[in-house]
Design brief:
Layout lengths: L3 E6 L3 H11 L5 E6 L2 H10 L4 E5 L7 H11 L4 E6 L4 H6 L6 E4 L4 H16 L4 H9 L7 H11 L6 H8 L3 H11 L13 H27 L5 H24 L4 H13 L2 H9 L15 H11 L3 H12 L3 H9 L13 H14 L13 H7 L1 H11 L1 H8 L1
Parallel strand pairs: 1-2, 1-3, 3-4, 4-5
Length: about 400
């Protein structure tokens, strides 16, 4: 494995010394240290880095300004911010440039683990063009109706968090951004959070409002390159897969936490496709409307980009710090047998939900050949899916409409 180039930037020498004591054991890390933004930029001119970790408050050039310059000049670099609890306003200003946030005093074990995970998943993408594109992605587009609904709710003097959560859950981009922020070490939650309601309660309406505003502004930029009907189809399919994954996992007897994780993975499973649609004009014309996940489409992605949309989505979510089970599910949702164990896992649940979502409204039964053949054999999946669909209220409602 090639060495990972990492640059830590902080004007507090004590913290830099703590980094040195902690990370000298990482044999595959080449670590450098800078005491300010200007020094960091001079060091990057001589040797770019894979990861930069910068304090947010520094004399002269602050961390937000530094990371903006890094994003412009070295977009392939993964960017982390260190901040104190009182820096929430600056944190929100840095959302368009930082991939992850860590609070001070910094949990060095958590930081070390996060860097290793992001590098491992991100490094699996051998195509430098895609690596550069993914690291430069800052926000994702969202359907405009969500902002209208949220704005109306926020105009109420005492907005209902329950209603806010219901609205947020219908939008993959806003959900991703909320989970991105709440799972950052800045908020100090030890356990990964995949429940949108829990995340919204922890963040509060003010932060949710800021997330919506930031995402909404950037959404207008993406809409210049990504047709609205495509975004609508993406949103509808993502929501459908999320609810199907939740329902199937409930039928399997999973607990609420596991069902919420399945919902999250279903909501985000095609996020890599949105990246490709937004940044490669010709890609959209290669996606069949009736069967966008056909083997032909995925093979064409690999021939064109050397990776497919599932790998791209997983790399993006790993940089953002989403929980590893969600990242792995997004990575393997077309071939869950790659991670299959003795029991049905989240990749298989989302895979089933994805296939069913594309074909549940057709008049013919779902062809078992559309599923990963290995999981069909391993789990007797055809029978299980049939039993689930016969008993689920989702399909009873669909057949009665």
């Amino acid at each position: 494995m090639s060495s990972i180039q990492i640059l830590f930037v902080d004007d507090e020498q004590n913290l830099l010394d703590a980094f040195k004591r902690r990370f000298y054991r990482q044999k595959n890390w080449v670590v450098r240290y800078a005491t300010g933004g200007e020094e960091a930029l001079r060091m990057l001119e001589k040797q770019p880095c894979d990861v930069i970790v910068s304090d947010i408050r520094m004399p002269g050039m602050d961390g937000v300004e530094l990371l903006n310059k890094v994003a412009d000049t070295y977009p392939e670099t993964i960017r982390y911010i260190l901040s104190g609890y009182s820096d929430r306003a600056m944190i929100l200003n840095s959302m368009n440039v930082a991939h992850q946030y860590f609070n001070k005093p910094c949990n060095l074990e958590l930081l070390e683990e996060s860097i290793n995970v992001a590098i491992r998943v991100f490094g699996e993408l051998r195509n430098p063009r895609i690596q550069k594109l993914l690291a430069s992605i800052k926000n994702l587009p969202s359907p405009p109706t969500v902002y209208d609904r949220l704005s109306r709710e926020f105009r109420i003097s005492d907005p209902s968090m329950e209603k806010v959560v219901d609205i947020v859950k219908t939008d993959p981009a806003i959900s991703a951004k909320i989970l991105h922020l709440v799972n950052s070490a800045f908020f100090g939650f030890r356990d990964s959070i995949t429940d949108i309601a829990q995340a919204a309660m922890m963040l509060g309406t003010d932060v949710i409002r800021s997330l919506v505003l930031v995402t909404g502004v950037v959404s207008a930029t993406f809409r210049r390159t990504c047709p609205e009907d495509v975004l609508d189809r993406f949103s509808s399919h993502s929501i459908s897969v999320a609810f199907l994954a939740y329902d199937f996992s409930k039928w399997l007897g999973w607990n609420r936490e596991m069902r919420e994780s399945a919902f999250t993975a279903g909501l985000l499973h095609d996020i890599g496709r949105l990246v490709l649609i937004s940044h490669f004009r010709d890609y959209i014309h290669k996606i069949p409307v009736n069967d966008p996940d056909s083997n032909h489409t995925i093979i064409d992605e690999r021939d064109t980009f050397e990776v497919d949309h599932a790998e791209i989505g997983a790399a993006l979510l790993s940089i953002w710090g989403l929980p590893i089970p969600v990242v792995n599910t997004v990575m393997c949702h077309h071939q869950p047998s790659l991670t299959a164990g003795d029991e049905i896992g989240m990749p298989t649940v989302v895979h089933v939900a994805d296939v069913v979502s594309h074909h549940q409204n057709t008049s013919t039964p779902i062809d078992p050949a559309l599923f990963d053949p290995e999981i069909i054999r391993r789990y007797d999946l055809t029978q299980k899916v049939s039993q689930w669909m016969m008993t689920s209220s989702l399909f009873v409602q669909a057949s009665s409409n």
